[in-house]
Amino acid sequence: SQKIEQNSEALNIQEGKTATLTCNYTNYSPAYLQWYRQDPGRGPVFLLLIRENEKEKRKERLKVTFDTTLKQSLFHITASQPADSATYLCALPTSGTYKYIFGTGTRLKVLA
Amino acid sequence: SAVISQKPSRDICQRGTSLTIQCQVDSQVTMMFWYRQQPGQSLTLIATANQGSEATYESGFVIDKFPISRPNLTFSTLTVSNMSPEDSSIYLCSGGLAGGRGTDTQYFGPGTRLTVL
Predict the structure, then answer these.
(1) d(CA A52, CA A33)
(2) Which of A41, A111, B52, B108 is the most buried (most CB within 10 A)?
(3) Which of A41, A89, A98 has its CB closest to that of B103?
């Protein structure tokens, strides 16, 4: 079955550094992949979508890469700020449907 | 984009009772989904809410326990029936537009935090 893995351990980094989060998937070749941000007690908020034919996508301080050979996506936040502290989820569409599978998310904490 | 609201935002309920959660979208969406999220866990899809017809449930979820309605393109309800403490969770509604290759973006409501005593 399709499976998504994100590092369940929290990631602590110093303000101003680049945070890199990893999303690995197996048993699937998705047409695209999404990243969401979730704050405590809130619903996820869509950040970026990257398609299989795109190696890299950027939005302000965010950058996402998609390696279909490695079955991996990397999510980068450059010049990180304490306000970036949240849980970041990756999501893949399930094959042949409009539904998504979400990873467990990685909690990021940016230290001032 | 779409803005999604949910009511109630939280509730504390007694075992054996039922709670209906409402989800309202400010624009028409093709797809609406209901998820459950246990503390520290990822989102688990409960069902796809279909307009004017029965919802499509995921494995492990049944209509008798989680009846869902979607009378139009912007509104849906999820009922958690005959509740037990194991139903304590955050329930999330989401909506999206079906693009050429699926719902490219899902918009989520703020969630309903349910505690069952």
Answers:
(1) 8
(2) B108
(3) A98
